[in-house]
Design brief:
Radius of gyration: 37 Å
Largest sheet: none
Number of strands: 0
Shape: flat
Order of helices and strands: HHHH
Strand content: under 5%
Helix content: 40-55%
Number of helices: 4
Amino acid sequence: MGIYEGRGTEAGRDAGAGAGRGAGPGVPRASLWQEEPVGRRRLPDPVRESAVRAVLIVAVTLTGATITFFLTLTGSWLAFPMALASIAGTVVATWSVLDVLITRQMWNQRYGVLSEPSSTARSTRREARRARREARSAGRIPRKGRPRAVWPSASADSRYGATSGRG
């Protein structure tokens, strides 16, 4: 407990009484640290790692580009090698940002599907199963497999008849 949170300290009693909350000298005060609910969940570990890596690479690239700019203004011989390094850094930074997007998409595809009972797909499947069960109980659909299709025999079709004109 901190110095202002305890029951027996003078500062705690004075601060509690002066706050106007009606708290007496024996009532502990609320903690100074208040937990607030977070609006979004924490990123998954692989996505967070690639995001941190991308931020560091972009920061180094921007620093190198700034140094290149100032070296170019002063006419230093280091401006050309630093310009080449800045171009390479830009390519690497672009790749690292793409890595964040790809890692995030991969994570969502692999682990992001939440199966909830209130899902519309699940309720649609449930309704289809119920309809099949009712149709089966009414005797319209056989239990195993699909119903057999009744096709006309080949002799009933004029194309396959005995008088086809062939030899």
